[in-house]
Amino acid sequence: MLGLDSAGKTTILYRLQIGEVVSTIPTIGFNVETVQYKTIQFQVWDLGGQSSIRPYWRCYFPNTSAIIYVIDASDHERLDTSRTELLTMLSEDELRDVPLLVFANKQDVGGSLQPEKLSEELGLAGREKGRQWSVRGCCAVKGEGLEEGLDWLVSVIQKQ
Question: Where do the annotations place Mg(2+) binding (predicted)?
């Protein structure tokens, strides 16, 4: 699970694992947890999103079955940075054809980009023709939209 700092990755991870919001601090390095979701057991690597940590993301790309990329949909100022990091990551050979779920998090915040608009802003439709991908709205603190996103991801993984 990747994304810029403060996007909500750790909140999503623990919401999925224990069903609750836990108090979090910025992730320096990574958190790794096993998440059981319906018939699939995921080993989720929640990688820190600070600019000093992002160059190390690639160390975790080999043997990746799926990517969950979390974007703070209310943070318009850093959308370009988030897009650049996402597209750079997707260009890596190790991640070719790996399914991508983008969570447009913080949908409860006024002015958040809706998934359709965020999808346009990211430019995925024109670039990612060989990859299964989906942009889903969510609110990590309320748990809204997470199941729908994971349902999509599970269905894609099971078809592979």
Answer: 10, 27
Residues identified as active-site: 50
Specify the CATH number of the domain 9-158.
3.40.50.300
Q: Please check if 93 is assigned to a binding site.
A: no
Residue range 88-108: mean pLDDT, rounded: 97
CA atoms within 13 A on the CB side of 151: 5
Model pTM above 0.90: yes
- Taking 90 as the threshold, does the pLDDT of residue 94 lie above it? yes
Per-domain residue ranges for the chain? Answer: 9-158
Q: Is 11 annotated as a binding residue?
A: no
Does 85 score more than 90 pLDDT? yes
CA distance to 12, 56, 58, 61, per residue, from 105 (Å): 9, 23, 23, 23
